[in-house]
């Protein structure tokens, strides 16, 4: 089963999915030259990524483009087993998720109408 969620923050298009016990995040980082320009950290249940592209030209002198994104990890994610690969402008981060630690219960939260002024 795979649920894919796509988001965009600070110029980063990100797709996240959980597939066969593995969390996968793919981020498009156009113009980033190599993996050394990308930083991925995981801490306290959150994944953070940063990337920076710098260019110099006679017209602009120096131009810098920074990308950033953070996202909460699914319950049961094995943070210490995360891997990352950067190829052709796409960063792919994978991490196993322990199915036994994942909460699978679905909780429905009731939505009620607000109390009118005369009922208060």
Automatic annotation (TrEMBL):
Domain SHSP, first and last residues per copy: 5-112
Signal peptide: none
InterPro entries named among the record's database cross-references: A-crystallin/Hsp20_dom (IPR002068), HSP20-like_chaperone (IPR008978), Small_HSP (IPR031107)
CDD domains in the record: ACD_sHsps-like (cd06464)
Pfam families for this protein: HSP20
Stretches for region Disordered: 54-81
Alphabetical list of PANTHER family matching this protein: HEAT-SHOCK PROTEIN 20 FAMILY MEMBER
Family as reported in the entry's similarity comment: Belongs to the small heat shock protein (HSP20) family.
Record's protein name: Hsp20/alpha crystallin family protein
Species of origin: Streptomyces rochei (Streptomyces parvullus)
């Amino acid at each position: 089963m795979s649920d894919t969620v796509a988001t965009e923050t600070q110029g980063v298009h990100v797709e996240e999915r959980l597939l066969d016990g593995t969390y996968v995040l793919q981020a498009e980082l156009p113009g980033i030259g190599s993996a050394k320009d990308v930083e991925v950290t995981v801490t306290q249940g959150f994944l953070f990524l940063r990337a920076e592209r710098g260019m110099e030209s006679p017209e602009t002198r120096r131009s810098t483009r920074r990308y950033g994104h953070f996202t909460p990890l699914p319950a049961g994610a094995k943070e210490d087993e995360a891997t990352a690969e950067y190829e052709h402008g796409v960063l792919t981060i994978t991490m196993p998720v322990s199915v036994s630690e994942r909460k699978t219960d679905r909780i429905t939260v009731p939505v009620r109408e607000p109390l009118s002024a005369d009922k208060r």
